[in-house]
Design a protein that fits this description.
- The complex is a heterodimer of chains A (about 525) and B (about 300).
- By secondary structure, chain A is of the alpha+beta class.
- Chain A has helices spanning about 1-25, 50, 70-85, 115-120, 170-180, 235-250, 290-300, 320-370, 380-410, 415-445, 450-485, 500-520; strands at about 30-35, 35-40, 45, 55-60, 95-100, 100-110, 125-130, 145, 200, 205, 210, 215-225, 230-235, 255-260, 260-265, 275-280, 310-315, 375.
- In chain A, strands 5-6-4-17 form a four-stranded antiparallel beta sheet. A four-stranded antiparallel beta sheet of chain A has the order 11-7-14-15, with helices on one face. In chain A, strands 8-10-9 form a three-stranded mixed beta sheet, with no helix packed on it.
- Chain A is elongated.
- By secondary structure, chain B is an alpha+beta fold.
- Chain B has a four-stranded antiparallel beta sheet with strand order 2-3-1-4.
- The longest helix of chain B is centred in the last third of the chain and has 33 residues, at about 225-255.
- Chain B is elongated and about 80 Å long.
- Strand 17 of chain A pairs antiparallel with strand 4 of chain B, so a sheet runs across the interface.
Amino acid sequence: MLQRDLRMLVGILIVAAAAIFIAIPTSPGIHLNFMGVTINQDFPIREGLDLQGGIQVLLQANEPPGMTVDPQSMEAARGIVESRVNALGVSEPLVQLANGNRIIVQLPGVKNPDQAIKTFGQTGLLEFIDAGSTYLPTGTVVTTTLGGPASLSGNSAAPGAQAAATPVGQSAAAGSQAASTPGSAGSATPTVQLSPIPSTTGAETTYPTVLTGKDLQTASVGFDNLGRPQIDFTLTSSGAKKFADFTTKNVGKYLAITMDKKVIECPVIQNPITGGQGVINGGSGPGFALQDAQDLVIQLKYGALPIPLKVVESNQVGPTLGAEAVHQSIIAGVIGLGIVLAFMLVYYRLPGLLADCALLIYAAVAFALFRVIPVTLTLAGIAGFILSIGMAVDANILIFERMKEELRGGRTLRAAIDAGFSRAWTSIRDSNFSTLITCIILYWFGMTFGASIIQGFAFTLAIGVIVSLFSAILVSRTFLELAVALGRVHDLRWYGLDRAEIIQTAAAKSSTTSSAASSTA
Amino acid sequence: MTDIVGKRYLFFIISAIIIIPGLISLIIPPGLKLGVDFTGGTLWDVQFQKPPSVTEISAILSAHGYPDSEVQPGANNEVLMRTKEIQPDQPVKAQIASDLQSHFGPMTELSFQSVGPSVGNEIWQRSILAVGLASLGILLYIWFAFRHVPHPLAYGVCAIVALLHDAFVVLGVFSILGRLFNVEVDSLFVTALLTVIGFSVHDTIVVFDRIRENNIRHAGESFVTIVNHSLLQTMGRSVSTSLTVLFTLSALALFGGSSTRLFAVALLVGIVSGTYSSIFNASMLLVIWETGELKRLFSRRQVARAAV
């Protein structure tokens, strides 16, 4: 028994040491090169949005009528959003699908949230359209053969959005009839319509799309000779051919460049452009802001979203709020932990002291797990952790109360410890299991609409419950048994019984031993 | 031996006195003051360097198409604006921000939360579903865990009644707080509610577990005695555990900062209620179920109906 306890103690100390090593704020991480095996593991604390500031956005497919959302195109949209987000240069972004037609985007610590949302959330469909002999001023919203503005954002009504929303499929079919070249490498949408005459439907003009973003091979931010930002692009070979054909036939006409149906520039074709290279400079006037040019390039690089998305929920937290909250939560946690430690010590004495040690190990192990897994810490998560400190001692309390009872009932110390642990086990198991059921449901509840705050709470509480089972059963028990075996602490006052109870106990003990003797006899 | 079970109807009355005001407040519209999580809308928290004027801010919001906005000034020149949904990627947000800055000088955006109406509605429905699912899961688990005692379903049902008791205490308190102090209910509140449910059952199970054990060990004694004995035995533990949780939660409520304060308060209320209901309601219900008092109450009403 003693031997087993000692072995257990060594195991516990090793786990505790490892946990403390990981949990201390200045943890250096593990960097080992042992017999050819290299381990390089840092343990950063992953802070949630509410702690370090940042944004969380829930995007939802906003398909125009006639278009269906399938898992493949959602996955494709997610991939594009993720590439764009990565290009924004935010550390530890999260982009994931949720609930079939939604994408959750989390950007911790992003500087300019509104701009960021625009960059990754907008469709980003670049079109070169044949404007014929009409000059389209910058900002004009147009309908093209690939659809009107409504095809990109079903309900965020852009000016003039009453335009007949040409369903994409239909216009693509119309386009392919007129197309002289086969669509470039399996792409469904870009169609070439060489007819220079804009087809008109009533008052609304539908401009033929000549090229789309898909015909671009590269795009980058450059500067013109006045130092204004511009976008340099190269076309794919098929794109270059279409562009060359078109510009050759339409010298002197206008070629408008639109982004999501909004004109950004409308130059006159001076000469045929056959080299497959060009620039977009944002039209006359001030041109692009550098930030806008950079964002546009990000959208061009990774292509247009296959499905228009709209923001259905967003949450932005400034960094100052988070920093203050972290500070306050830590204070609350330390005070809470301190009171619990003191309470256990005063009320349960020796077992309380041992439970306190177990509780500290519990806190270190749980926190180390948060770092290793890693769990994104949010305010609610910290609250869950602080709450779990209170609940973690519950298992100990159940055991100690049981032990006291057994001592009062006249059992020996050893027997009381054994009975305390084994009898309390069923209620510890059942009660913690019900908390775990709630955690699972909370996690599910948070998952469906990307409420990472709720998920964080459920996850930390669940880890807390599981670790507390380990600490209450293994750690406190080992400590207690060792204390009894090695420390020879046998005075029952150390176990929380008062003098009167001890006298009663002695009486009970003699009666139980005599009754036990009589029953064995 | 202190007779707790004998005073069972007194405890039911105490519960009723606590719950009824909250229930009345819940029934009279608006019941709960729902946050933007559920209703959809925007909550925009900004800070200026000098005190801004609430009426001017309202005027600016109206001018941009948000006439029925609530503007609430806070400490340190903070202002909380509650409006219909403003989408962050739409130009109107930047326009409002620049108007505010031209009126009141530099502005720091502390937080901006925006929820579309359909998502809000969905979160609300899901909250209710989550509470329902949690209750069902717990009922099934208790039924399973207590399958060896007579009437295992009774244990599950009584635990659920205690759980509903605690949920209604918390809902009622927040409904009243909403009327008095404009306290809103958000998805963090739902989280607190679910946690309270978990804790309530946790507590109830500890008492039930002792009843289960004593039922086997002291077979032959009356159920009333067994329950009373079990309650006395577990009382120390229930109080100790609740105290430790209350300590940590009070620390969180007092020192943990404003964003989790209401969350901690909801948990505090729920856990006090949970401790009470597991001792004084769940077990008492079990007693009146097992002794047939419940049936008698029911049949008396049937007799009365038959007489009519």
